[in-house]
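Milestone M4 deliverable, item 7.
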Amino acid sequence: MDSWQEEQLQSLLNAKSESEFFKALSDSVAKLGFEKCSFGFRPPLPVSSPRIILLDNYSANWHDRYVQNNYLVVDPTVAHGMRSVLPLIWSDGLFASCREFWEEAQSHGLRVGWAQSCHDARGVGSLLTLARSHDNLSPTELAENNLKMSWVAQLAHEGLSHLLLDKLMPESGVTLTARECEVMRWTAEGKTSSEVGDIMNISDSTVNFHINNAVGKLGVSNKTAASIKAVVLKLI
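Output delivered:
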């Protein structure tokens, strides 16, 4: 690991607050030649309305417009990040389906950009966007900095996860026993307690014992919710 990587590692993973984290991120981005950056962070729970953390140093007016108009649903970089972890470079073609959004972003000095998402085994997703008002990304610049930009995206994901995940999603620390996992795996497949008992060669009461343990650990009210949460958290 070279000195640059070590510096970013320490600054992003050792932040003690959101503001300290974002300052370290902004500093890292500036060293890569970008004036602005945005970092979106989304835990998978609650399923019905996952909380999205959005940190950026865009103009206050653009930040407010983005949030109030729910531009997350039309932003093609977000759509790309939901289905792929490959880096994405902004272009007119990318924003062809949302010209008004693109023109408004450009009016706030956001004309050149790069974005990359991260998704981890806990079901957490994030998207780092680097932006500036001028100087298109050249092949030479990309060849020199692409790995560093991806490195920062990964570190930012881990840094904010370390800082916030226990608070935002306390279930992330839950562990199930091997038996609980097996029972919940069959339950998630739609099997009844009797069917699970037959498959595992244990009694219905033992199956229900493991289900109730999982329900309690996951903080839900029934086995359906426990199955969904266990799948989302990749426990089964």
